Amino acid sequence: MEVLKWSKFDNEKLKRPGITNYFQISKDGGTGGSIFRKMYGQFLIEADGILSFKELSKIGEMYIALSEQWDRLANSMWELGQTGDANILKSMSVHILSLYENEKSLCEKLQLSLS
Q: Where in this chain does the record put each DUF4872 domain (predicted)?
Protein backbone atom coordinates (compact mmCIF):
# COMPACT_ATOMS: atom_id res chain seq x y z
CA MET A 1 0.00 0.00 0.00
CA GLU A 2 1.07 3.54 -0.68
CA VAL A 3 0.93 4.69 2.95
CA LEU A 4 3.75 2.27 3.78
CA LYS A 5 6.01 4.42 1.58
CA TRP A 6 5.50 7.23 4.09
CA SER A 7 7.66 5.34 6.60
CA LYS A 8 10.74 6.88 4.96
CA PHE A 9 9.60 10.32 6.20
CA ASP A 10 10.87 11.70 9.49
CA ASN A 11 8.30 12.31 12.25
CA GLU A 12 7.69 15.94 11.39
CA LYS A 13 7.24 15.29 7.67
CA LEU A 14 5.01 12.30 8.46
CA LYS A 15 2.57 14.55 10.30
CA ARG A 16 1.68 16.44 7.10
CA PRO A 17 0.09 13.57 5.13
CA GLY A 18 -1.69 12.43 8.28
CA ILE A 19 -3.40 15.73 8.96
CA THR A 20 -3.98 16.49 5.25
CA ASN A 21 -5.66 13.15 4.64
CA TYR A 22 -7.65 13.47 7.85
CA PHE A 23 -9.29 16.62 6.53
CA GLN A 24 -9.94 15.01 3.14
CA ILE A 25 -11.73 11.92 4.44
CA SER A 26 -13.19 12.85 7.83
CA LYS A 27 -16.78 13.74 8.44
CA ASP A 28 -15.49 16.98 10.01
CA GLY A 29 -14.29 18.55 6.80
CA GLY A 30 -13.88 16.13 3.98
CA THR A 31 -16.05 14.50 1.37
CA GLY A 32 -13.79 11.70 0.25
CA GLY A 33 -14.70 9.05 2.76
CA SER A 34 -17.11 8.91 5.62
CA ILE A 35 -19.73 11.50 4.83
CA PHE A 36 -20.14 10.47 1.18
CA ARG A 37 -20.71 6.81 2.07
CA LYS A 38 -23.25 7.75 4.73
CA MET A 39 -25.18 10.00 2.33
CA TYR A 40 -25.04 7.37 -0.41
CA GLY A 41 -26.30 4.71 1.99
CA GLN A 42 -29.20 6.93 3.01
CA PHE A 43 -29.94 7.58 -0.66
CA LEU A 44 -30.07 3.85 -1.42
CA ILE A 45 -32.41 3.23 1.52
CA GLU A 46 -34.69 6.03 0.33
CA ALA A 47 -34.53 4.79 -3.28
CA ASP A 48 -35.57 1.32 -2.12
CA GLY A 49 -38.81 2.81 -0.84
CA ILE A 50 -39.53 4.17 -4.31
CA LEU A 51 -38.13 1.41 -6.51
CA SER A 52 -38.89 -1.62 -4.33
CA PHE A 53 -35.52 -3.34 -4.81
CA LYS A 54 -35.17 -5.14 -1.48
CA GLU A 55 -31.40 -5.29 -1.77
CA LEU A 56 -31.04 -1.51 -1.93
CA SER A 57 -31.91 -1.04 1.73
CA LYS A 58 -29.48 -3.74 2.80
CA ILE A 59 -26.72 -2.30 0.64
CA GLY A 60 -27.54 1.19 1.92
CA GLU A 61 -27.15 -0.01 5.50
CA MET A 62 -23.83 -1.58 4.52
CA TYR A 63 -22.66 1.75 3.07
CA ILE A 64 -23.58 3.48 6.32
CA ALA A 65 -21.56 0.87 8.23
CA LEU A 66 -18.71 1.45 5.78
CA SER A 67 -18.81 5.16 6.59
CA GLU A 68 -17.99 4.26 10.19
CA GLN A 69 -14.92 2.35 8.98
CA TRP A 70 -13.86 5.48 7.09
CA ASP A 71 -14.27 7.46 10.33
CA ARG A 72 -11.90 5.03 12.05
CA LEU A 73 -9.36 5.51 9.26
CA ALA A 74 -9.73 9.28 9.60
CA ASN A 75 -9.04 8.95 13.33
CA SER A 76 -5.84 7.04 12.52
CA MET A 77 -4.86 9.82 10.11
CA TRP A 78 -5.48 12.38 12.86
CA GLU A 79 -3.30 10.38 15.25
CA LEU A 80 -0.57 10.21 12.60
CA GLY A 81 -0.88 13.95 12.06
CA GLN A 82 -0.49 14.60 15.77
CA THR A 83 2.28 12.14 16.58
CA GLY A 84 4.18 11.38 13.37
CA ASP A 85 4.37 7.79 14.62
CA ALA A 86 5.39 5.56 11.68
CA ASN A 87 4.21 2.48 13.61
CA ILE A 88 0.62 3.44 12.75
CA LEU A 89 1.26 2.99 9.01
CA LYS A 90 1.06 -0.83 8.93
CA SER A 91 -2.37 -0.97 10.59
CA MET A 92 -3.55 1.90 8.37
CA SER A 93 -2.43 -0.02 5.29
CA VAL A 94 -4.38 -3.10 6.40
CA HIS A 95 -7.42 -0.93 7.13
CA ILE A 96 -7.26 0.74 3.70
CA LEU A 97 -7.05 -2.65 1.98
CA SER A 98 -10.09 -3.79 3.95
CA LEU A 99 -11.98 -0.64 2.90
CA TYR A 100 -11.10 -1.33 -0.72
CA GLU A 101 -12.33 -4.92 -0.53
CA ASN A 102 -15.57 -3.89 1.21
CA GLU A 103 -16.24 -1.10 -1.29
CA LYS A 104 -15.61 -3.38 -4.24
CA SER A 105 -17.94 -6.00 -2.81
CA LEU A 106 -20.67 -3.43 -2.19
CA CYS A 107 -20.39 -2.08 -5.74
CA GLU A 108 -20.67 -5.60 -7.12
CA LYS A 109 -23.73 -6.32 -4.95
CA LEU A 110 -25.34 -3.10 -6.07
CA GLN A 111 -24.68 -3.88 -9.71
CA LEU A 112 -26.15 -7.39 -9.32
CA SER A 113 -29.21 -6.12 -7.48
CA LEU A 114 -30.01 -3.72 -10.31
CA SER A 115 -29.56 -6.26 -13.13
A: 2-110
Nearest Cα to Cα of residue 5 among 14, 25, 77: 14
Rg of the Cα atoms in the chain = 16
40-75 residue pLDDT tens: 999 999 999 898 777 899 999 999 999 999 999 999
Number of domains in the chain: 1
User: Does 4 map to a domain?
Assistant: no
Domain assignment of residue 19, yes or no: yes
Cβ contact 22:78 at 8 Å = yes
**Which pTM was predicted?**
0.86
In a domain, 105, yes or no: yes
In a domain, 41, yes or no: yes
- Select from 44, 47, 52, 49 the least CA-distant residue to 107: 44
Question: Rounded to the nearest 10 degrees, what angle do helices 88-114 and 54-83 cross at?
Answer: 160
